[in-house]
Amino acid sequence: MDANWHLDPQLAEDTHPLASFELSDLRLMDDANYPWLVLVPRVAGARELIDLPGEARLRLMHEIDHAARVLKQVHAPYKLNVAALGNMVEQLHVHLIARDRSDPAWPAPVWGRVARRPYSPEQLAETARRLQAALAAG
């Protein structure tokens, strides 16, 4: 891990830790409206994908692939959205959102459509357990 790296306070507030990969921390967005993961590479100062050295970019792509497959396995979505926007939080992070035609924002983007619905403690524990079990298995 980069000694100068720290998690952006907004990401820390909005997400829960799930796992640490070789390059990135995998976190669960605290919004029960959508199965939503966030990968945050532990590279100080990285704002864009192109800020990562070549090997780190490839590693991140493998970690995105792994997390996306777990999300698909656990939630069986109609569509997976993968995006690195960074308009509100500049620290490089990648959103992986499982979308269904019945979700509250479909087919529009999830941002700003409906109020965030934080997980209850029970929902959070069960969601994290299922995702961590799938991560460990694959």
TrEMBL record:
<dbReference type="InterPro" id="IPR026026">
    <property type="entry name" value="HIT_Hint"/>
</dbReference>
<dbReference type="InterPro" id="IPR036265">
    <property type="entry name" value="HIT-like_sf"/>
</dbReference>
<dbReference type="InterPro" id="IPR011146">
    <property type="entry name" value="HIT-like"/>
</dbReference>
<dbReference type="GO" id="GO:0003824">
    <property type="term" value="F:catalytic activity"/>
</dbReference>
<dbReference type="Pfam" id="PF01230">
    <property type="entry name" value="HIT"/>
</dbReference>
<protein>
    <submittedName>
        <fullName>HIT family protein</fullName>
    </submittedName>
</protein>
<feature type="domain" description="HIT">
    <location>
        <begin position="37"/>
        <end position="106"/>
    </location>
</feature>
